[in-house]
Amino acid sequence: MTATPAGPTAMEGSVAVWETTSAEATHALGKLLGESCAGGETIALIGPLGAGKTCLVRGLAVGLGAPAGAVTSPTFVLIHEYAGRAPLYHVDLYRLDARDAVNGLGLEEYIDSAGVTVIEWADRAPAVLPRDHLRITIEHLGGDRRRVTLHPQGARPAELAAQVVARHPARPGMGGA
C-alpha cells in the first residue's frame, strides 16, 4: 500500500499545512506536487538537516515521471538534472554561503527554463528566487513526524498549491496525522 499524507491540517488564505508521520507520506506529498507541476515552476525548500527535503524531491521526481532511485542530495555536485515529462533541476545551496558563489551557478537559466527547479536551502540566497515561486518549509517534529507548509508567492504557485490541496483531501489515518 502506498502511503498517503493526511490532508492539510490547516488552509489559511494561500498557505496549506500538512503533517506527515513517515518518509513515505512525505514522498507521497512530493509526488502529488510533481504530478501537479506543468513545467516552469520554481520551488524553494527550507528546513534543517534531516527535515526531509530530499525525500520530498524524490516524490516530486516520481510525480514528474523521473525514477525516484536516481534522486540524491546534490550537496557536493550542487545541481542534479533528472529527465521526466518536464526536466527536474535539483539545486542544493547548503555549501554555498556567499552570494557570488550562487551567482556563478547560472541559476537564472534553470529558473527561466521549461523545467521544474527545486532549490534546497533556498533561504541562503533568497535574492536568486523569482518573484513567483512556491516556498515550502519542512519542520522536524520528532521521530518521523514532519510539518510541511506551502507558501505560494504569486498566481501560478497559488494555483499549484490549490491543485495539490484539491487532489489531497483529508484522509484520517492515511499516512498519519
Walkthrough of the structure:
The protein is of the alpha/beta class and 177 residues long. The chain has a single domain (14-165), classed as Rossmann fold (3-Layer(aba) Sandwich), CATH 3.40.50. The chain is 27% helix and 27% strand. It has five helices and eight strands. The protein has helices at 23-36, 53-63, 99-103, 107-111, 155-167; strands spanning 10-12, 15-20, 42-46, 79-82, 88-92, 116-120, 133-142, 145-153. The protein has an eight-stranded mixed beta sheet with strand order 1-2-8-7-3-6-5-4. β4 (79-82) and β5 form a beta hairpin. The longest helix has 14 residues, at 23-36. The protein is globular and about 40 Å long.
